[in-house]
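re: that chain from earlier
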Amino acid sequence: MCTGDNVLTACSITMQCGIHMAGGIIMEGPVFCQLNESQMLIPHLQVLACSSLEDKKILVEKLHMLGKIIAITGDGTNDSPTLKTAHVGLSMGIAGTKVAKEASDIILMDNNFSSIIKVIMWGCCMNDTVWKFLQFQIFY
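^ sequence. v structure.
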């Protein structure tokens, strides 16, 4: 989780959501930005708190280089660069700015994070259906 919130708030949220687990690293954005390549330990980084736009950008670029799939949620104009660079950008429909909505791939119309799970389920179902259709067309 990468957030502009302070460390205590970020830790509380990530523990409640099950994101932060034993062995995971919690770091603040200014500290993260000063680390060199070998010190970043991105695979073990679970919480990046007090992060700036530049911190988020660096994190997304490093995750891209590691071959990770990246999904970003955002609602403000400052989130639009990372929404564009991520594989999947999700913006908030009610509270989100127009710039964030235009930069994102998916707009959560109800501002409810549980909708993300529904989107993933529908996407997987669509993927399976297209795959079965193509198999049928090719092999029969």
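The beta strands are 25-28, 45-49, 71-74, 88-92, 106-108.
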